[in-house]
Amino acid sequence: MGSTSAENTGNAGVGRRDLIKRSAALGLISVPTMSFLSACASSGGGDNGNKAKAGKKTAKNPLGVNDTAGMEFVLFDGGFGKEYAQDAVKIYEKNFPKVKVKFSATQKIQSTLQPRFNQGTPPDLIDNSGAEQMDMGVLVGKKQLADLTPLLDAPSYDDPNKKVRDTLRPGIVEMGQFDGNPVWIMYYAYTVYGVWYSQKALDSLDAQYPKTWDEMLAVCEKAKKKGMAGWTYAGKYPYYIPFSLYPMIGKVGGREVLDAIDNLEPNAWKHPAVKACFDAYYELYKKGYILKGTPGLDHIQSQTAWAKGNALFIPNGSWVENESANVIPADFNLAVSAPTGIDSSDKMPFGTIWASGGEPFIVPAKAANPEGGMEQLRIMLSEASSKNFTTKVKSLTAFNGGTTGISLTPGLKSGVAALKLAGDNVLNPRLQDWYVQLQKEQIGVAGLGEMMAGRSTPAEAIKKIQGFADAAAKDTSIKHYKHQ
Description:
Bact_solute-bd_prot1; 12% strand; single chain; ten-stranded mixed sheet; alpha/beta; 10 strands; globular
């Protein structure tokens, strides 16, 4: 997801917009133009007359790729670079020696590909990411995408006895769904959200990462006595706060609380778990544990202050290691943890974390060679390709593994450990990709931002946010989604 940062403000760094574009992948910066909406609306239905004839399905070719048909792959040209994809293309061409893959990379996904969708001649595989990401909801709603279920049900590249879907990290398949069972998107990168900190700083306080809120307050008090704030966050973009707050709500009340919030159910925000967590975060403000001036800081400024040791904890995603690499000291010992809970009465165990996919790959419905596009993804979801990606760009992939034998950076190593601790207790709130305005401007800025700055109480914030959610639920101009 990379970042939910201020891509639209002009303040986002290259690290956020390009290198860690996972959040763009989650739809946070996807603002389709009317021309694209019109193009999609006018290009639905019909078959591509250039459709390649499907090949024979065999053990080595389970998707039935035509071994003489060309395949076209368009990649978003961002911070992850092109090399990992080009390496995977070489494997495709080796497996199908009569084929030459047409590979290209661009930062202008929408303006480059919109006309081709309109003409019914899209590429076979697209990395739909970046500031010009095409709107997923429009693509799905206008039947522009191929269902990737055949890929997911195909034998995995490494083990013919295991389906591709059984090799993926928790939540990846569900993220690609909108309504019902079809899977329209394969999110390739994988982001760990949580509370980030310096292990060195925590050790200097002779403290361990707090598991209960009383312990959290005690650690913050220790930090305060040593001249360090307990917390900071992107005050100008307070929709970063949910990276640790939402999984805390899920930990305290159970994942069904987050599902109800995502589903825009009446009174979902009035659940006792929401109140308990809002009260807890507000206590950080009341006790003076928030870095002074935080409400005026953007994501880069808050991360820089944190990296310099002015604050102990910051809610963020795993892109922070790359994005703040120039300010994080060599001996910082970057670490991430699942959110602190309230106490032993929490519904889910400590370690419950938010982690989800980013970097969305799609196969257009009118692709000339959709089997080829899916086969390229099957190759990319192998252990070798996953390791190659992680080694080169310091990010995990959707493949559940691929880190054995790799020298991991501190943050990546900590993220892997956090996922291992979480096990099946991985949450994936969907507000940020289902309802962008609600999540960012209303819940984030108008709700949480005002509360954490001390300008509203938790009760006032909850009432306001519930009102926003109710309005969104009644808004017939937007498409509504629900957990299946």
